[in-house]
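Quick bug: Putative NAD-dependent epimerase/dehydratase family protein output formatted oddly.
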Amino acid sequence: MTFSLSGRGDRAGAVHAFAAPYLLFLGDVTEPGFAKTAFGLRDWAGDRCIGEHALPDATVSTGLARLTPAQAAASGARTMVIGVANQGGVIPPSWVRELLAAIEAGLDLVAGMHSRLQNIEELRDAAARAGTRLIDLRVPPPNLPVASGRKRTGRRLLTVGTDCALGKKYTALSLARGLGERGVDAIFRASGQTGIMIAGEGIAIDAVIADFAAGAAELLSPDAAPDHLDVIEGQGSLFHPAYAGVSLALLHGSQPDQFVVCHEPGRRQILGTAGMELPTIEAVIEQTVALGRLTSPAIRCVGVSLNTGRMSPKDANREIEETSARLGLPAADPIRGGVAFDRLLDACR
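Here's what came back:
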């Protein structure tokens, strides 16, 4: 079996369907890290994206055509997707006018925010009049179990990070695709809103009540054949003062046999938290092994994924080589690929 973005028939997590093409809404975003949903869809579902729409104060762009909702609808768009993953997952009042414009243009709305479209009366009433849909993805499936800690069959790999928004999803997608191309029975498992939009199914772990979060992670990656590998999208960071709880629940419920640490060279502070320094890769490895042993006693780090998008090819290659030599592990930028990424894929097998 080759790489797949959808389930094997076991339907691990909620299944979501919405109509393409998409218009990506960027709100008033000025920090690229908070537009990761839009970038993820552009890069991994580009054939479904027709353009972008933003408020005047936005300074971030995906590079897609700038279209109003009416223009997008006239060009064939079916859905406007909120491409923002801001702190707290809020839909501010300043966005409502543009969301209403999308509804009036006949577009469905899709959001992966903690604030739910269905809870905004103006949007709900407008959608009822227009006959369009409001689709909230950060809604966990009902009747989630409490984690059992039972070791499941099959193999699992989890991406973890030194911070938020630095490549855990891209790494998981790249690894699943690369391993699939080598004939490995590998599948990407989405644990966040952007991954769910790309794959069409999954569970937004950070929307699950804390007591059930590890259980949701168990459900996300069910029993499988011995040679099957679930590549699970990581969330947050064990060192993030706000999101470490989500990361820990995902780690315990995933029960990964192996993990890859994701890091952005040059980033010094934890995103959205002034004064909090990023941990070292070494610290993340140590902490992940120590905490992961609770449900996966043989857990081990198999490599490092570096987000070198802001670096020149020469500097990126140097960083990759130095990191690998320092840690004694394969390091690579999955987007750049090459021999270094081949070594990382070898380690994951």
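Actually, after a second look the formatting is fine. The chain has a mean pLDDT of 94. Closing.
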